[in-house]
Write a structure and sequence with these properties.
The chain has 285 residues and is mostly helical. It has a domain of 167 residues. 74% of the residues lie in helices and 0% in strands. It is built from 9 helices and no strands. Helix 6 packs antiparallel against helix 7 and helix 8 runs antiparallel to helix 9. It is globular, with a radius of gyration of 30 Å. 19% of the residues are buried.
Length: 285
């Protein structure tokens, strides 16, 4: 037939129309590692590196301040180096939480959002306040009193009280704000309790200062009772809340759990320092 002899083969035309060019793979950049499901994006890697550097800087700065302020004579000197090193790690990590909060506020992200994040922020702000007040006490002690401990100088008692109050005012403000922001009812009551207990903690510090000046007027049992209330009751209730959250499988970010660990480590460090100072001042070590 003419169509078969001189025309175009219909079968070949259909095959040509159906055929599609194969998709060419994009050229790989030899200077950039391939992105897989297991490898994180470069931005996350940069953020991780920045966080580590910020943490190292905070820990190093706190350790430097502690080394400048460290003047512990007698039996306490055996514990001072260990306390300064461990305390610098804890307080430096707490300060890193303040930097983390500032960075997230700059990106207009909500922080703190979880109860543990409020603990992280509170511990960091209190650590920063104590570093400033300890620095002021050290400068005043060296310039005006030849390096004597201000808590043992009766004429500086009002100054010491003002510095202590400034620390616990920060404590009250942060935990009061956390009580309004936290949504979980149990955590909210715990934050309210911490804000109310801050004056009790300040009272404990004042009693301890008075005991160091006049040990015969205040019994050691009174100091231990106040210290137990501040150092045992709040962490014990916190652990109960943590166990309840774990049993109910509530989801929290890693910053929540980090804040809880930092708070507990800070309480353990303060307790250790208090016990050692009491034992040393009493002549038991």
């Amino acid at each position: 037939m003419r169509h078969a002899a001189g025309g175009i083969d219909a079968g070949r035309l259909c095959d040509a129309c159906a055929a599609k060019p194969e998709a060419t793979a994009p050229a790989l950049n030899p200077y950039q590692p391939p992105q897989t499901e297991e490898s994180p994006p470069p931005r996350q890697l940069r953020l991780a590196v920045v966080r580590v550097l910020v943490w190292i800087a905070c820990v190093g700065g706190v350790l430097a301040v502690h080394r400048l302020l460290l003047r512990s004579p007698g039996a306490v000197s055996a514990f001072s180096d260990a306390y300064a090193a461990l305390g610098s790690v804890v307080q430096g990590t707490a300060l890193a939480g303040v930097v983390l909060a500032a960075a997230r506020w700059r990106r207009k992200e909500r922080f703190p959002a979880h109860p543990g994040e409020w603990l992280w922020l509170a511990t960091g702000m209190i650590a920063a306040t104590r570093l400033v007040t300890d620095g002021l006490r050290d400068v005043i002690s060296r310039v005006a009193f030849g390096g004597r401990d201000l808590s043992l100088v009766p004429s500086t008692r009002s100054l010491d009280i003002a510095l202590v109050i400034s620390t616990y005012v920060c404590d009250v403000l942060v935990f009061a704000a956390a009580a309004f922001a936290v949504r979980q009812r149990a955590w909210r009551w715990w934050m309210i309790g911490k804000a109310i207990a801050a004056p009790l903690a300040a009272r404990f510090v004042f009693v301890q200062m008075a005991w160091r000046i006049s040990p015969d007027e205040i019994s050691l049992a009174t100091i231990l009772a106040l210290g137990t209330t501040g150092f045992v009751l709040a962490p014990a209730l916190l652990l109960v809340l943590v166990l309840v959250d774990i049993s109910q499988r509530r989801w929290y970010s890693w910053t929540h759990w980090a804040g809880i660990v930092i708070y507990l480590c800070n309480v353990a460090g303060v307790t250790f320092r208090f016990v050692v100072s009491v034992l040393a001042f009493s002549g038991w070590i």
